[in-house]
Every structure is written in C-alpha cells, then in structure tokens.
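Limitations

Structures in this collection are predictions, not experimental determinations, and the ligand pose is part of the prediction. Treat each record accordingly. The example that follows, with heme C as the small molecule, is included so readers can see exactly what is and is not provided: the inputs are given verbatim, and the output is the predicted complex.
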Amino acid sequence: MTNTFSGLTNFSKGGDSKLTLKAGYDANYLYILAEWYDSTVNLSQHSWIYNGYNVPLKPSDPNNGWTSQRNSDKFAMAFEIASAIGTKGNFATVGCEASCHGSGNTATMTPNSGSVDIWNWSLATSAPLGYAHDMTASSAGLVYDAGDKLATRNSNGSTDRSGPAYEWDGTSQSVTLPNGSTALLDPSYYLLNKTTMKGNVSNGLTIYESRCETCHGPNGSGAEAGAINAIGQNKKARKAYFDAMDNVADMSDYWGALSSEEKDDIVAYLRGLSGSPGHYLTVPTAGSSSADIVAISNVTPTQISNSLFTSTNHHQKYQVLIKRKLKTTNPDDVQFDLNANKNYVFGVALMDNDGKNHIGSVKETLTFK
Ligand code: HEC
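Predicted complex:
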C-alpha cells in the first residue's frame, strides 16, 4: 500500500506488524479479531497546536498560527457493497484497490462506480466510544453512514488553520460502551463534554512572551520553571487551570496581576501549546447505521495515562475485536447473506500515527465455513 508518512520502514519503528485476522460467526453476528504489533501509541487526531512544529515533508505549510498536528493509530477493512469498479479493475479481482487507489480520480477512496463499505477503527475518534466508524466509498467519495457521527471536527471554521471551537467543560466524561461497561474518557485526548473555547490566542501569546517566557521558556518548553506544554495540561478544565496558577506564589506578580480577560487569553494560548483535541465525540444513537460496528480492544480509554500514551504501547500489540450483524437493514452496509454467498473479498489496512498512508493487503477473502 502507501506505507507511512515517513516510509514503510517507519511502521511501528521498523518492526513487523505481524497482523493476524481471525473470524467467527453465529446466527446473527460476524466477529473479527485483529491483532498487530505497534510499539508506539498515537491517539490524537489533528490536535490544534498554536505555532506548531515544522513538518519537513510539508515545506509549503508554514507553522504559524493554528496548525492541525498529531495523528492516530487505525485499523480499517473494506468490503464490497455493490459492484465497485475503478481503473485498476473490479473489487472481486483487485480488492479495495477498486475503491481506494488507481481509480483515475485524484480523490482517493472513490471508485468510478459501485460502493464499498469501509470499517475504520481509530484510537482517537472511534475506539473511545466502543465502535469503528462505518463509512461508504462511492463516486461521491468517502462519507459517513447515516446517523450520528462518532467524531466531529472541533473547529471554528472549515480549514486546518481555523483553531478549536470547544474545550472540556470540566464535567466527568463517563460513557456507557455498547457492551454495557463504563469508560471515563481522559480530557487530555478526548473531548465529549464541551464548552466554547474562551480567549484570544494571539493576545495570549503576546502576554506569555512578556510575562511568562522568562521562567517557562519559549513555547512553554521549560526554563528556570517547569515545562507547561505537555498534553496532560488539558486534564485541567479552565477553572482548575486558573486555580493551579493562583496557587503558585512565585507567579502572583505575573499571573495574579492579569485581568480575567487576559487570563482567558493566556489559557487559550496554553491550550495551543499542549494541543487541544482536534475532534469532539458524540455517543451515537443505538440502532443507527453509524453505530453498526461495535469494537472492543485491549486499549480502553480508562487505561490511559500520559506515560503510556505518549511513548510506548506496553501491550506491544493491539487486539481489536469487531462485531457486526451479518445482515443490517441499511443500504450503506455490506450484507453477509450466507445462503447466497459464503466468500467475501475484502481489503485490510493498518495505520501508524497516520491517516492517508497505510500498510496492509488489498485483497483477502473471508470464507464462512
Ligand atoms: C518567576 C518565575 C515565573 C513566572 C514569571 C511565571 N511562572 Fe508559572 N510557574 C513558576 C513556578 C516556580 C511554578 C511551579 C512549578 C514549576 O516549578 O514549574 C509555575 C507553575 C506554572 C504552571 C503549572 C501550574 C500547575 O500546577 O499545573 C503554569 C500553567 C504556569 N506556571 C503558567 C504561567 C503563566 C501563564 C505565566 C505568565 C502569566 C507564568 N507561569 C509566569 C514560575 C513562574
């Protein structure tokens, strides 16, 4: 496939993913267990970072102002819904290449005709709610299935420079997963309960440079006082953030002297240093087509701690179990009608801190024995 942003050998820092797929079924459901190695864990998706890092592969994309950075680990499958054909051939012959690539269109995931079901498990945007995204690729491009979207861009506008619209409101982000268990979503990464992001970020930067940088260093990277740009800073809702800064005696001349408006500006800038979540999540209405694909994994939102999720995957491997009805009543889904057909061609893709680029296999066959 298209490898990773930094080349094929960059997947899991050069380790073999050793992807294995196992499947089972009963009268109503198909179950697929995917296991693969990925030593790093990436669970952000287009975090908003103010004056973000330079990306050497994107020299035309300057890093000033709001930028969208970071990405997520993902696992995706593609099944044919209705005879999909691209320039490379039809789905039965070339698998998901009929939809994803070589279609002759510049747009990816766009077959010339027909449609393809895309199941997309993302650690940033679907896994925390216990689902995989259910999507359809057709000549209209890649679109979400009907019903509530699990994740929506947390944006003030329509571009990757628009900046965040929302921040965490400080209330417990407890969700009931489809299997009935409860998860507490870490606000450093996940935005579920939200309120409008306050403050003027460029004012915040100006104030930071004149009042804070001497002690906390450029971009909050730390100097005589500690670094304040870690992603974990988002664990503090605005009030708690204010309180924490009120409590530092050394800072009373600098922080304490600001107006509440200026304090809001500063916090907007601090959010831009640690990176505000790029999406907010919505628990889908049970029974809607967007909620068809239930997923559980060995990485649950309750296990998240900073050290675990910004560096290594202590499990070393991902284990993701997907469950879907053999037959849904939705026109935007593949139907596994075992009386009509026992063999289903599919494609499978893995993404490591990436979205566009992936490794995997364009054509495999699922056989119901
Ligand atoms: C005179 C030095 C100094 C200046 C100036 C200063 N700070 Fe601090 N700040 C500290 C010290 C000391 C701490 C305590 C922890 C540490 O050593 O990092 C701290 C802690 C913090 C924390 C962490 C609070 C927590 O408990 O999570 C934040 C956030 C912070 N400062 C923001 C600011 C901002 C914003 C400004 C500018 C308005 C500022 N600081 C100016 C010295 C300073």
